[in-house]
Amino acid sequence: MPSADATNAAIQAGEQATSLPVAAPRVFTPSLKVVLSTAFGALALLTAVISSAAIGHVADKRIRADIGAEFTSAAEHVAALLDRGLFERLRDVQVAASLDTMIDTNVTIDGRRRILERLQETYPDYAILGYIGADGRVVETSSGILRGADVSGREYFQRGKQGPFVSDVHDAILMAPLLGRGPDNPPRFVDLAAPVRAADNALVGVVGAHLYWEWAEGIERHVMAPILARHPGAEAFILSRQGQVLLGPRSQRGATITDLAPSALADLAARRAGSVVERSRPENGAEDHTHLVGYAATQGHRTFHGLGWTVLVRQDAEAAFAPARQLAQQVLFWGFVAAALAAGLGWYLAGLITRPLADLCRAAERLQTDPRATEVPIGQGLREVTLLSSSISALVAGVRWRETALQNSEARLRLATEAAGITAWEIDLTPEQRARSRRSAVAGLSDPLAEWTIESFLASVVPEDHDGVLEAYNHAVDNSVDLCFSCRVRGDDNNDDRWVEVRGVPLAVPPGGRVTRYTGVIEDITERKRSEQALQLLVRELDHRVKNQFAVFDGLVRFTAKTAADPATMASVLHGRIAALSAAHELVRDATGDGSARGLHSTTMIALLQTLLAPYGIRLSGDHESSSGRVEMDGPRVTIGPTSASALALVVHELATNAARHGALSLPTGVASLTWSAITPKSMVVVRWQERGGPELFGEPVRRGFGTSLVRQSVQGQLGGHVAFDWSQPEGLVVSLRLPADRLAR
């Protein structure tokens, strides 16, 4: 609690402050010119960036689409030329097969050879043209190669007998020597064939042709030349029906359509053309690349249905889209240039607009830095500026005086609430539901909480009180009524629980409208709660103790009557035991006083126990002469403070009373052993109560009385320790207490 001198000094300082305006803290803020020019520049920059980005994006998207369409068009062109070329070559073979020279069996071989030679001269990409008899033996060829050879097992002959036929590309390894090629570079052919039939449709023979694959390479070079001029590094592929590369870069000869353009499979299956950005699969540890791929499938031409080939045109995507990227960068660059020009213009216009206010701003700055300044010079120039300066001059003095008065009022309120142990709080009922506390008195925290939520407050509330707190809070908020509840909270050490009382009232905005906030106080009521609990416990204990005293008196009388030789001896012994109980009662009564104001003092464990257990006879460790003692005690010196003595006396008295009524001390042969030990002088004291020679135990009793609850509450609540009851020993009850030494010394 603040002292009276400190309180008076704070109030006097506040009263003195009310007579002088307090200068507001100086905060750097940019000038209006800077703000306006920055706003103009930012607006221009934002407009330029957005427009440039939009234009660049549209241009990039359009150029990317155009490049993809260009690659697709090239692929379609190659596919169309391949189909048309094969159609024309097949038509050449069909025309040759329909000539009378080929059909008439009486025509000499030289006549057929001249036709074949003339056809090869017309189109040099033919490797060989030949006339094959119906038996499959070559009758004549354009170059004399294979004359007389048996080709009856070849596919082009078997299929050529049935109708016009075009085969897929294949390597002619056996013909390599005949055409001057090595085995490592065999020729690649496309076979063509057409039947030669007489007027009665009888098969006379077959006209066959081997077309060099270089024919397709020429088409590829012709179509790709303009593409390569615009897109260096572009590649073309021709793939077979099975997806194998027939024509393409040597490094990709083993690739398939799945490796090159798996995303295009669905379109190619439907014979649709298009383009796609495809990530190639890395091979042999090479880095993967992203390619732009244009694709098209051969469609055939007129009566020729095509061979199902696929044409791909691709290029590295980064290189292919470089023009689009460069255009976007150029658009963005010129957008920034335009923004810079607009920012400069904005700076000039801002200067024209803000110049009349510059003097007024400097005057306002002087008012901020000089606490004694109360007037604002009347401004010159625009009418609005003059009115503004006059209004500021009138407002400054009033605002400063009111701020100072408010600070003084707040200081007085803070002193009053802190002196009373009260903390103010406020909670906002908006979706954030944030509460604010001025100090850390809430929950006994050592560090202030500037902002906290109802959930963070619950984190400091003991779990047993969570439901009650939430119920009270929700009821008040839902019904817009006053909030009031008390609960236990944990401090930083997590040892001592403290009681707080929370009170609050709803605030409506506007008055009479919807409640949006609650404001109130939190008060520490720990001492009040402890006093209430101690009073309740004392009342219950008083009632219980009176009953126990009568039971003890009854047991003492009966036991003394059995052992006393005559009435005088009985009276003497009984008087001594009752006096011991009275002394223990006096010790307990003193220990439950009001602290140092009663002049209490500490005692020891042995002194307390001797006083409490004297009526039953005490036998200390090593004392063999006192064989009649019913209670054995042994342990080191342990200090018992005035506060803990009350709780410990209740525990020992209850254990002895229970033993006298139901346990070992209820029989003449029964003995109770009470031992204690200190693990370390400042940590934990272990107390063990063990009964022997009493009625046989048959396990834990079904019903527990007030005495057991009193022992647990005293040990755990007041002494901060732990108690364990062991009912498993047939010869008697064993009770173990673990008590903190620092709590016992209080």
TrEMBL record:
Organism listed in the record: Muricoccus vinaceus
InterPro entries hit by this protein: HATPase_C_sf (IPR036890), PAS-assoc_C (IPR000700), PAS-like_dom_sf (IPR035965), Sig_transdc_His_kinase_HWE (IPR011102)
Keyword Nucleus: no
Enzyme class: transferase
SMART domains per record: HWE_HK
E.C. no: 2.7.13.3
Descriptive protein name: histidine kinase
Bilayer-spanning residue ranges: 34-55, 331-350
Catalytically driven reaction(s): ATP + protein L-histidine = ADP + protein N-phospho-L-histidine
PROSITE patterns: PAC (PS50113)
GO terms, molecular function: kinase activity
Keywords: ATP-binding, Kinase, Membrane, Nucleotide-binding, Phosphoprotein, Repeat, Transferase, Transmembrane, Transmembrane helix
